[in-house]
Amino acid sequence: MRQDYYDKIAPRGQLIVVSGPSGVGKRTVLRKYMAEHPRACHSVSATTRDPRPNEVDGVDYFFLSFEEFDRQIRTNQMLEYAYYNHHCYGTPKKGVEDARAAGRNVILEIEVNGAMQVKKLCPDATLVFIMPPSWKELERRLRERNTETEEAIQERLEIAKEEIAMADQYDYIIVNDTVEKAISRFAQIVHGHRYSINCMTEFLKTYIEGEIHAQERLAY
Amino acid sequence: MRQDYYDKIAPRGQLIVVSGPSGVGKRTVLRKYMAEHPRACHSVSATTRDPRPNEVDGVDYFFLSFEEFDRQIRTNQMLEYAYYNHHCYGTPKKGVEDARAAGRNVILEIEVNGAMQVKKLCPDATLVFIMPPSWKELERRLRERNTETEEAIQERLEIAKEEIAMADQYDYIIVNDTVEKAISRFAQIVHGHRYSINCMTEFLKTYIEGEIHAQERLAY
Q1: What angle do CA A47, A176, A61 make, to 5 degrees?
Q2: Residue A24 DSSP label
Q3: Which residues contact B84 (CB under 8 A, 6 or more apart)?
């Protein structure tokens, strides 16, 4: 990786939060994007549910007891968390911070409520919402999985409506009409957002203090 | 130019406002960028100053009388304007709107006060501020021009300080350490910002109305 000027002035990696309705193809887009962009990584979530066969603690999830999860919430160690299906799911701050400090771009694939929590805690996070090209296409993709009852599909569609109604809280909207185009749009957003004012606040402060005020002090 | 999904859902071109201190190299960056990106264009400004030899009305500027300029301000035909050196300079709305309607990305190179006027009138504009890599380098670039007195250079540096103090009002910050890198950053910002929520507001409204509410109405 060649060192760019921005690696010096803004060395921390970006934090990119991605949401979108179930069935929109988030996971496929993000996996392929990460395969092509080794600077990006995902962070390991924590959960109170039991590991499934083959799931490894610290790799697939951090498997925590309810007591430990609750303790981590109370001691501000969670960037965001939610209760879902009788279990807690969350993103531990430490993994995200360590990766960003090492210059990696951290991608969080989380639902809308979690995304709003991150937005509050990390003003320099980039929030991306992935939309289906049409409602019919979302239904088609959900049915194509062929793993769920009609009732479960209808429930997912109801949730999708609520999620799409929150899309205006995100920084960017990607329509996933084809996976390749969605990946390329995602890459453009990540690149461009590096120069956004939210990511450059520290730099600006240091610049004005170091360059301009320093020069003014010299003048006296 | 291949038609992308976004050419259908968000067919208007983007409006990109660029500011930065005198001597930072804005013009070089933008000219080269536009040469490489034919979708981009600049809009012709209006001014009350007299044409210089070789300047053509409607090409270099729209040369207007004070009365006509004033009339256009009062009838809301100016996107932004400023008084400078005993003359008025401004951006007529019509040219910008026509070009955007035709899908062109319009680039305005204007100073900070004008940029703030555009920000208010066009929430979907992208504001980019170009910074020198250091204060010393800005001084060097101003002196290198070799066209101005020391007093004029000091005055430009004073104005530069005030301008940089406004940089946090912009959406993106580009450091112009080398022209090629600045162009590539600018291109990434323009690409990525196409998907920003400010540019997607209309799409989201139409989407929710057309896709989701339409589907709900069918259900009854």
Answers
A1: 15
A2: S
A3: none
- Burial label, B108 (beta-carbon count in 10 A; 0-12, 13-18, 19+): buried
Contacts of B9 (CB under 8 A, 6+ apart): A175, B203, B206, B207
In the 8-state DSSP scheme, what is residue A43?
Answer: P
pTM: 0.88
Q: Is B30 exposed, middle or buried (0-12, 13-18, 19+ CB in 10 A)?
A: buried
Amino acid at A65: S
SS3 percent helix, strand, coil of chain B, rounded to 5, is 50, 20, 30
Q: What whole-number distance in Å separates Cα of residue B25 and Cα of residue B99?
A: 25
Q: Which B residues 5-24 touch A at CB under 8 Å?
A: 5-6, 9
Residue A106's H or E segment, with its range, is strand A105-109
Instruction: Give the closest-approach CA distance of B53 to chain A in angstroms.
Output: 39
Q: ipTM score of the complex?
A: 0.83
Chain A residue closest in CA terms to B186: A192
The residue whose two tokens read 């929150």 is A166
Residue A178's contacts (CB-CB under 8 Å, 6 or more residues apart) are: none
Distance from CA of A121 to the nearest CA of B (A): 20
Q: Are A108 and A18 within 8 A, CB to CB?
A: yes
Residue B12 CB burial class (10 angstroms; 0-12, 13-18, ≥19):
middle
Tokens of A208: 């004005």
Q: Return the ∠ at Cα A13 (arms to A109 and A64), rounded to 5°.
A: 45
Q: Do you know the residue count of chain B?
A: 220
Closest residue to B192, CB basis, from A9, A181, A191: A191
Q: Which residues of B touch A5 (CB under 8 A)?
A: 133, 175, 177, 181
Please give the residue of chain B at the shortest CA–CA distance from A199.
Answer: B172
Per-residue pLDDT tens digits of chain A, which is 220 residues long: 457 788 888 889 999 999 999 999 999 999 999 999 999 999 999 999 999 999 999 999 999 999 999 999 999 999 999 998 889 999 999 999 999 999 999 999 999 999 999 999 999 999 999 999 988 999 999 898 777 889 989 998 999 999 999 999 999 999 999 999 999 999 999 999 999 999 898 888 888 888 777 767 666 6
